[in-house]
Amino acid sequence: MPIPSPNTDDVLTPRPDLRSLSLPDGGLSIYVAQSAEAYVLNSSAAQVWGQLDGTATLGEVIERLQGAHGADAGLASDVLRIATEMTVAALVLRASDDGT
Asked: How far apart are the first and last CA of the chain?
């Protein structure tokens, strides 16, 4: 069964079992100990990751990033694409999936 793409009303949070390390270029390295997999997020994806606190909707994350970087017509679609990639890779949980 395909994983539905997140939308602007979804609240996402990083899985609590993941370890991350900030990289000098603004990116982020994420390690999944259970599967011994590693992911490297570029600086744009790392900024989205940093906003996923389990309380803000993706719409609110988009608004925060637009406030920090200015209105960009492609920013909302970029955030939703990044959130979809993180969801498919099972790096994040929807608030509705983690019991909150």
From this structure: 23
Give residue for tokens 């992911």. 39
d(CA 40, CA 30): 6
Which residue, 92, 44, 95, is CA-closest to 65? 44
**pLDDT given for residue 79 in this prediction:** 92
- How far, in Å, CA of 91 to CA of 47, rounded? 15
- The stretches in the chain having pLDDT less than 70 are 1-2, 97-100
The conformational region for residue 55 under phi > 0 = left, psi -120 to 50 = alpha, else beta, is alpha
Phi, psi of 27 (to 5 degrees): -80, -175
Query: pTM for this one?
Result: 0.86
Q: What percent of the chain has pLDDT over 90?
A: 69
What DSSP state is assigned to residue 11?
Answer: B
